[in-house]
Design brief:
Elements: E1 13-17, H1 24-40, E2 45-49, E3 78-82, H2 94-99, E4 102-107, E5 118-121, H3 128-133, H4 143-157, H5 167-177, H6 183-192, H7 196-208, E6 210-212, E7 217-222, H8 224-230, H9 240-245, E8 252-260, E9 263-270, H10 276-282, E10 286-287, E11 291-297, H11 300-317
Helix pairs in contact: 1-4, 4-5, 4-6
The structure holds adenosine monophosphate and manganese (II) ion (2 copies).
Length: about 325
């Protein structure tokens, strides 16, 4: 696909959806596409589905129009997923994907099998927002669309820090900036800022983290009991695994929290030598070479043991 216009011919109704537990790239890409269609294709009746996006993204235009549940039966002419790595990760609107006349997937996960009719997947690009920008007409990217795209870019590059950041990423960010949004406010408030409780929880996880595999791997964890004590859920724990990764000498950081009793959400981050997407896919998850995740059941001890065994295998393969 060269331009999104190619798939919009004869389309009267369109749905857009992201993945479960939407992050900045997911919210940004879905909203950017929604705002672009609203602005430049006013004859298309477009809906966007996002599973309870965090209030910190409230500065993106039209967040009040986001649908947080699938309602009546619908058959969209076109259904587009953004930042969704696999079909079972579509939030809320999976049934609309199935019933749509035509489906498109815009993504950047290496683990994406290509589950739509048209798959525009660029595994080497740092964010779904950057992939999306590539199929929009640059002159049509107004401030409102640019704000949403920029949001996804900073979230998935860790504010242009991760190695997936390319010269092209920076060029696009520069183009977006020209539209005149308050970028430093967006970076502070949507990416870095934490509530007092979120900081306390991060502090606790760091304090109780353990080093394994001869200091090559660090593990942070939160049990249900602790989460209830602080009154936090998964959405409050962003950034913890990235902080763990910054421990000197560490190749892989693991962070897990108990979603419900004996069910853990596992986040993995690598400093480059270990392909954590391989580890996550092995356990039924997915992601990128340096950032991946999966959901696992069992005791925390079992989960940590199973994950670290796969990491150890990769370290041994490379004599690390
Ligand atoms: P997270 O650790 O949740 O920030 O996720 C890191 C990356 O892995 C993101 O790109 C996610 O889309 C992907 N990911 C996380 N959990 C899963 C999962 N259970 N299945 C597939 N991909 C996942
Ligand atoms: Mn995402
Ligand atoms: Mn992404």
């Amino acid at each position: 696909m060269k331009n999104i216009a190619e798939v919009l011919e004869h389309v009267k109704t369109m749905g857009i959806a992201g993945h479960i537990r939407p992050d900045g790239d997911c919210v940004g890409s879905c909203m950017a596409l929604y705002l672009y269609i609203r602005q430049w294709y006013p004859d298309i009746d477009v809906d966007v589905y996002l599973d309870h996006p965090k209030p910190v993204f409230g500065y993106i235009d039209s967040m009040e129009n986001v649908k947080m549940q699938a309602e009546e039966k619908k058959e969209y002419d076109l259904f587009v997923t953004c930042d969704v790595s696999a079909k079972d990760r579509i939030a809320l609107a999976g049934e609309y994907f199935d019933s749509a006349k035509k489906t498109v997937c815009i993504d950047h996960h290496v683990s994406n099998p290509g589950f739509a009719d048209i798959n525009h997947i660029c595994g080497e690009i740092s964010s779904a927002c950057e992939v999306l920008y590539g199929v929009l007409s640059p002159e049509k990217v107004n401030r409102s669309v640019a704000t949403a795209i920029y949001t996804g870019m900073i979230h998935d590059t860790g504010v242009f820090q991760y190695s997936s950041t390319s010269p092209e990423t920076m060029r696009i960010a520069g183009e977006l900036m020209k539209t005149g949004f308050n970028f430093s406010k967006i970076i502070d408030e949507s990416f870095y800022q934490k509530t007092y409780i979120q900081n306390q929880v991060m502090g606790r996880v760091l304090a109780e983290s353990i080093m394994v595999l001869n200091g090559k791997c660090i593990v942070g964890y939160l049990k249900r009991k602790e989460m209830d004590l602080y009154g936090v859920d998964g959405k409050d724990l962003d950034g913890i695994v990235s902080q763990l990764r910054l421990t000197a000498g560490v190749e892989v950081a693991i962070f897990l929290y108990e979603m419900e009793s004996q069910t853990f959400k596992v986040s993995l981050r690598s400093n480059g030598k270990v392909d954590v997407s391989r580890v996550a896919v092995f356990f039924g998850g997915g992601g990128h070479t340096r950032a991946a995740g999966c959901d696992l059941q069992g005791s925390m001890y079992d989960v940590v043991n199973n994950i670290t065994a796969q990491i150890e295998k990769q370290l041994q393969e490379q004599n690390i």
